[in-house]
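Most newcomers find our protein records easier to grasp once they have seen one. A record pairs a protein's sequence with a compact description of its fold. An example says more than a description, so a record of this kind follows:
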Amino acid sequence: MKENLQFLQAFLKNPLKVGAVAPSSPELAAEMLVGIKPDENNIVLELGVGTGAITKYLQQIIPNRESYLGIELDTEMVKTLGQKYAELNIVCGNAAESYRIHQESGLGKVRYLVCCLPFVSLPKEVSESVLLEIEKFMDEGCELRIFQYAHGYYLPPAIKLREFLRNRYGKSKRSPLVLKNVPPAFTLTWSSI
């Protein structure tokens, strides 16, 4: 309940940065993590950790601290996450600087990029900056996993994002609609491996 309240407060404070009114459901988290098997040489990078709704399930498959890096912009959320997930590397930072943040972390190669950012509601410049960072990781060979809410799936920013990624990495693998999420969502996966 506390997590939902914190998420709602963050949304009300800045809806363009948060992009949803509730944290991702366990069902969406499970779909986001299908096939992800990190280790120290093939880490998970989570962009937009939020309240840790996906992180809670990522934690169960991460073998050690050196196999994960989470980046979250909201300083209050990072403080809470630091207490809740003390055994994980979660830093306060901007996803538009994620490549540099990862390089400075000294952690292994990003093999899995789990992106929980609200691309549909982000300003165009921010979205483009983050995509340039994602491209750097994809150029080195990784798997990108995002989700898009069903109600926004056919909005121009969502279509543009998928076209951008499809033109570079081919057609995505789309999950069935995850109905047990508010709002319902699809997960989308691209691979450059």
Q: What stands out?
A: Residues 3-19 have pLDDT under 50 and may be disordered. The domain at 2-191 is CATH 3.40.50.150 (Rossmann fold). Residues 124-139 form the longest helix (16 residues). The radius of gyration is 15 Å.
